[in-house]
Amino acid sequence: MTPASWSIKAWQPEARSLIRDALESGRPSAIAAALDAAHKQAAIHQAPAFSLGISSTFTLGPQQPALELGLSTIPSNPQIVISDHDTIEQDLLDPASPLLVQPLDALLVLWRAEELMAELLRRRHMLSKDQRHEIIDQAAGRVQQLVSAYTEASPLPLFLSTLPSSLMMAGDVMETNQPAGILAAIARLNETVLACAAENPGVHVFDFAGWTQRQKTGWYSSKMDFVAKQPIAAQAAPFFGSYLAEHFRPLVGPMKKVLAVDLDNTLWGGVLGEDGIAGLSIGQDYPGKLYWRVQELVASLKARGVILILLSKNNAADMEEAFATRSDMPLSLTDFTVIKANWRPKADNLQEAIDELRLGLDSVVFIDDQAIEREAMRFHLPDVEVPEIGEDPLEVIEMLAQNPWFARYGLTDADLQRSEDYLRESERRKLRAASSNLETFLRSLEMRMTVDPLGTATIPRAAQMCARTNQFNVTTKRHSEADLAAFVADDGIYFTATLSDRFSNQGIIALCLGRPINGASDVREIEIDSLLISCRALGRGVERALFAAFVASAARAGYARIRASFLKTKKNGQCENLFADLGMSLETSGPDAKHYVLELPATVDAPDWIEFAHMDV
Amino acid sequence: MNNLETLFETVGEVFKVDPSTLDESSSQDSIERWDSFGMINLINELEMVFELNFNVLEIVEFRTIGIIKDALKAKGVDFS
Asked: Is A224 within 8 Å of B44 when comparing Cβ atoms?
């Protein structure tokens, strides 16, 4: 099923065709155009707002429009906020995180083995069985700790993804047969996710793995996974969006309550009035088993509380005889709350049935194999949901099995009462109390930071960081390799920092360039020309540790004053108050720049959860 | 539309700039939305528009439209 078959019927035809283009091509520009058109539809602005926060271990940001487009195809006015820096604990436990400062309706965590158990995937040939077990236990423990810290603090529904199988690993025969191998590890983590959801009423499962198996065009791009850590293939991204739409539909609007279903060629093969009871196709063999399966699925919906209405153009007596004769079928007539078997228009019958039940037409889904019946229903009763399926029983089976209209998470009433437009103050206080959990987590990471003088070996990576880092970059000076080589030949304090923790070694994650100011003053001054940190290391106290290292080096080198500037760009807002937070004094301030000063000697306390390997710079 | 125009058009669509303001020297520095996110979308878009695949190592060099044009040319796209 494609999102095109969802509730976009209220959209203008041009917008619908843009959506179809976007889905067929997956081109980012087609997606952007369709999303622009979606935003212009009155239907979207009348729909309930739905705000989803996603914390992901892999890159998803560039695909945000595709995801929003998917969510626009259910009756919702969606907003998606993504944090995709593999900083899940910070995202979920720090009340000041980019996700939690937003007014959200739900939080989704997307993760994969590639990040959660990076060591296991990368060094698998070198690991002993015990080491493998240790990695798996740690990752499972991390999931459990995260969930218990989060649920103590936050009332927002949390959706944890299952982990997809690792395509890089598929077909590795040795690994498959390895005790504590990748397959076993992923199964264990998925069990942990399922158990967390089972034990906590506010925690639910999002079956990411299920989507990767279902996605027909191939979900994975190994190229973009290497280039940008963006595993979801461009062509698949809008389908992932529509999967989100299916999944979050129960949170967005009122769910359907009634399934109105046709009989001939829908619940059995053949036309009763022409083929007779003996000529009907329903049973254990092909093709009858297709209809058998349809009936089983309809019966299971009834068991979950969905009201069934039968709408059939047949003589009532013939139909009753057929159900009596074939009493072996999964459905019997008593399963239907209302039965309308006559020759009147189905819309009239349905209207009558719904009036009897005192329900709304917008709570009904109608399934019929005949296009003309579907069209007539849409025309006469536009509030009824009429999916564009029916002729092919396999499509009916897939739709009923995926059950998008009637889905429930087993949410409690409290969950269903969607949060106000913002987290209330009391909740924010609870979240703040949870930052002690964040600190516990940060401590448990056993972070180790190494500060090294900038040199030949590290200049290429440093120049790359200058070129790419936009967010946590105080001056955004794009120094080239040649610039950096010239700096280090001169006086000053220039260093890079690497960070590792018990999960992974992140490599070089920060750069700090201090250049002496010559002759400006009678005291020796040094200026922070650049200070930048890679996104994946944010929220851990790295900036404070880095600054402490810089202050200590500057004092050792005999400087009496540190100057620093924040130069505002469209992207670096999050470090606007960095220097003030670090204890520097604001000297001058303009709309686009702030200048700070710190007299030496000064002490800056580095967070004690980061261990310094050495500080000789 | 010839292939050069298609290239400018595509870059313009992805980064939301007027294609007529682009030339081969247009780069990450002159186009605001050409950041690391935009780059990923540009590559996906170009692969779909020109129906080809870039090698994983080529992508790192894509700093200007001219460089991308050369990469397309090497894959048989006609810019004569």
From this structure: yes
- Facing residues of A513 across strands? A494, A530
Kindly state whether residue B26 falls inside one of the protein's structural domains.
Answer: yes
Find out whether A597 and A572 touch, Cβ atoms under 8 Å: no
- A291 neighbors A324 (Cβ within 8 angstroms): no
Other beta carbons within 10 angstroms of residue A412's beta carbon come to 11
DSSP state of B19: G
- The confidence score (pLDDT) of residue A108 equals 98
Answer whether residue B56 is part of any domain.
Answer: yes
Q: Got the DSSP string for A198-210?
A: HH-TTEEEE-HHH
Reduce the DSSP state of residue A373 to 3 states and report it: helix
Q: Which two tokens stand for residue A4?
A: 């095109």
The CATH number for B24's domain is 1.10.1200.10
Task: Answer yes or no: do B40 and A230 touch at CB < 8 A.
Answer: yes
Q: Is A223 on the interface with B (CB under 8 A)?
A: yes
Residue type, A380: H
pLDDT for residue A3 is more than 50: no
**Whether A43 contacts A15, CB under 8 Å:** no
Phi, psi for A65 (deg, rounded to 5): -60, -35
pLDDT of residue A615: 57
Domains of chain A: 3-253 (3.40.50.1110), 258-402 (3.40.50.1000), 447-612 (3.40.630.30)
Which of A61, A467, A478 has the CB atom closest to B37's CB atom?
A61
Domain residue limits at B58: 3-74
CB distance A63 to A82 below 8 Å: no
Whether residue B35 lies inside any domain: the answer is yes
| HSE-up of residue A50 (Cα within 13 Å, Cβ side) | 31
Chain A: closest CA distance from residue B45 (Å): 5
Has residue B7 been placed in a domain? yes
Separation CA A112–CA A549 (nearest Å): 34
Distance CA B42, CA B50 (A): 12
Chain B nearest-CA distance from A386, in A, is 33
Q: Which amino acid belongs to residue A99?
A: L
Q: Domains in chain B: how many in total?
A: 1
C-alpha–C-alpha distance, residues A138 and A145, integer Å? 10
Share of chain A above pLDDT 70, in %: 92
A538 pLDDT higher than 50: yes
CA A502 vs CA A91, A118, A445: distances in Å:
19, 11, 6
| Average pLDDT value over all residues in chain A | 87
Neighbours of A270 (CB within 10 A): 18
Averaged pLDDT, A342-370: 91
What DSSP string runs through A318-336?
A: HHHHHHHHTTTSS--GGG-
Rounded to a whole number of angstroms, the distance from the CA of A91 to the nearest CA of chain B is 20
8 Å CB contact between A9 and A374: no
The dihedral over CA atoms of A216, A219, A224, A228, expressed in degrees to the nearest 10, equals: 150
B37/A62 touch (CB, cutoff 8 Å), yes or no: yes
Name A584's Cβ contacts closer than 8 Å, sequence gap at least 6.
A562, A564, A596, A597, A598
